[in-house]
Amino acid sequence: MRAPAMTGLIHKALMYESEPEFVAAAVNFIQDGEALGEPTMAVVSRRKIEMLRAATTATVEYIDAEGWYTSPGATLGAYYRRVQQHRGPGRLRLVGEPIWTGRSPLQVREWKRYEAVANLTFASCPAWILCPYDTGALPDDIVAAASCTHPDVVVGGVSHRSAAYQDPAEFARSCDRTPLAPPGADVAALPIIPGGLTRVRGFLAAESTLRGLGGDRMEDLVIAANEAATNVVEHGGRRGRVRIWTDHGDLVCDVVDEGGRLDDPLAGHLPPPPRATSGHGLWLIRQLCDLVEIRDEPGGVIVRMRMHLS
What we know:
Rossmann fold, 2 domains, RsbA-like_anti_sig, Sensor histidine kinase, transferase, protein serine/threonine kinase activity
C-alpha cells in the first residue's frame, strides 16, 4: 500500500521509561511507515541504533545523534534540508532524540526552544517527527517542556493531544525572559559604522585567533557576525558596535544594533522563501554558530553568537 502525497507536520513526544519500551514504540512507528511506503530516519544514540537494527529489518537511515545534534540552528537546518529533499508519497518519518546530558542551562533552554519552533519551521512540510524522552533519566523540567512543545504526546503506546501545548512563538518568547549576561572582563569592542565592515571582519578575525578560535570555525564566526553587522548598516539603526570575549569555554561575539528594533521571538528560525533575495541573514547565522541569542533591549538589538573553544 502506498500512501498518498501529503503535507503538514505531525510532531509527537514519545514518553518512555525503559529501553524495551522505546524500542517497541520506535519499531512500530518505523514498520507502520514501511507498510505505507514512507521512509524513516532514526537519529538516536549508537546504542539505540544497534537495538533498532536488532529489532527490525525495515530499511532505516540511521544517524548517530552525537554528530547530528550539535547546535539548535544547524540541526534545524539539516532536518529542514532533508525534509525538503523528500519527493516520495506520504511523509518522511523521523525518530529524533536530542542529546540533553552534558548541556549547560543555556544550552538546555535553547534546545527546548528548538523543539517549539520546529512546529513552525516544518508546519507545511511532509514530515512526521517522533521525539523520544526518557522520563526515568531526564530532569523533570525537560520532560515537562516536551508536553509544551509537542502538540501530541505518546504515553504507554497511546497518543493524545497535549493539554500543556503552547503556541511556539509564546514559548520562544518565554525563553527570552532570561536577561543576557554582561560581557566578560577580556572584552574587546569596535564601532560599526557605514563603510566600516571590512574593518569589523579584520577585527573579529584577529580577536578570534587571539582567543583560540581558528580555521573554518573562525571563518564561520566572521561570516555570521558580518551578516549581523550588515543588517545594522543596511536595515537597522545604521550604527552599532561589535564586541568579543570568552566565557566558560565559549568565544562570544555580540553585534549590537544601536537604535534598531526586532521584537520577533522566531527571528532566524523560519527559513526564507526559496526565491527570496533577502531575509537569509539570521537563518544563516543560526546555521553557522553553536548557539545564538537575540534580544530587543532598550539600547538596541543584540545578536549574541557563541562558538565552542576546544
